[in-house]
Amino acid sequence: MSGESRDVQTLLHDRVLAPLRLTEPSARAQGYQTITSTNPDINDNGDTMSAETPFTANKPASDDKNTHTYYGTADAPADGTTATPKDVRASTSSSEAEAAAVAAGLSHLEARQTRWYSYFLTPDFWAIIAVGQLLSLCITATNTFTSFLSSVGTIIPAFQTLFNYALLTLIWLPVALHQHGARKWLGIVWRDGWKYFILSFLDVEGNYFTVLAYNDTNILSAQLINFWSIVCVVVLSFVVLKVRYRWLQIAGILLCCGGMGLLLASDHITGSNGGEGRNMLRGDLFALLGATLYGVSNVFEEWFVSKRPMYEVLSFLGIFGVCINGVQAAIFDRTSFADATWNGQVAGWLVGYTLCLCLFYSLVPLVLRMGSAAVFDINLLTANFWGVIIGTRVFGYVVHWMYPIAFVLIICGLVVYFLAGNILGDSKKPWLGDNQKDGVAGIGTAKLKALNEARKKGLAGGSSQV
């Protein structure tokens, strides 16, 4: 450096910087960058200063432009406050470390030598089968309680489902508020509330129109049309979520549908299809609409739970479900509510219905994460089998010889569906980007499996979200 340059710097230091105390340690603590070093790229502590440093010589780091508000990240401050540049750097470092760990974990998992039966040896496959059958039992139980209510003239489809959404709110909203904090939770309402409203609306209306269909058409027609929900799920997943099904997966779906066809055929042979409905055309149209709404809502929920924590999705599903179902019940169930039978037995059936349906809703995200909306719908095909088993004990039904064959076909269809799958099955979602970077590291997700694999190999610490 020339003598003239040193004289200019000395003059600048004595006349400008010294009175402002910009070269003191306290100034650096307040976020100012010192410029008294003889090397313009080195600060007083010997640390290299990037040319893109967020600090300037005349602006504190606490300026609004240097503060950052988090939304929907695991590194967000618990109280929902803004983050300083130090927080941002720590968050960025943490995110980059997590991304590297996920990439390493996925590489380890997908590099394993696998055989056609490898996925069947994983806990995920058996968890999907077990949880799927539990969901089928829950559906069977809710149908049984609904039959009990109908038998005494209590037909209130919107009102009886209202309690389920209220219970979901009571359980999951406190969890969401505790995890996010009130301020951050309100930010989610502002940004994503309309999306959750659409999800809840699809779910509520799917329930409502399906119940209406069973009042107007026979059971055989309603169940045949419910196959349409599987078609909707496959088409929407292919077009919207960019899922690409292999031939074995399509064969598995068709095999499951064949098993369901046997169930329906046995119902027709034994005359247990409900006979002629009150208004077959209207009932079939309601069933078709309900199946379509179910298919769309299942795909939408799979998209949500793979990106957001389960407690957040379930809490909003409950909140908006209460609002939508409450308005619908007030409009359409007033007459039937007044004419319904009310006693202790009816109250017990409503409690049983609510508990079973709440358990169903709370477990669905696990199947959607470990599997997919298609796997979820296929699992529910076995609900008819369990319904007959319960019917033999409660309503005196006789099991037709086709039922065990149909049940085996549906389970075999699930096995065939996963024959061509890798060790991650359907848990690795194509719409979450490379290394699942847009996904949440929650229970059942490929991202959490990759992180656990990386930790096992000593490549990461990391944290997960439910």
TrEMBL record:
Ranges that cross the membrane: 125-149, 155-175, 196-214, 220-240, 247-265, 285-304, 311-331, 346-368, 375-395, 401-420
Compositionally biased tracts (Low complexity): 72-88
Q: What's this protein's family per the entry? A: Belongs to the SLC35F solute transporter family.
Q: Does the keyword Transport apply?
A: yes
One example of the protein's molecular function in GO is: transmembrane transporter activity
Q: What is the lineage of its organism?
A: Eukaryota, Fungi, Dikarya, Ascomycota, Pezizomycotina
Residues of the region (Disordered) are 35-88
The alphabetized UniProt keywords are: Membrane, Transmembrane, Transmembrane helix, Transport
Where is this gene product found? Membrane
Checking Pfam families in the record gives: SLC35F
What's its membrane topology? Multi-pass membrane protein
**PANTHER family in the record:** DUF914-RELATED, SOLUTE CARRIER FAMILY 35 MEMBER F2
Q: What is its main location?
A: membrane
One GO CC term of this entry? Answer: membrane
This chain's protein is named: Solute carrier family 35 member
**InterPro entries reported for this sequence:** EmrE-like, SLC35_F1/F2/F6, SLC35F_Transporter
Q: Does the record carry Transport as a key word?
A: yes
Name the species this protein comes from: Staphylotrichum longicolle
Q: Where is the composition biased (Polar residues)?
A: 35-56
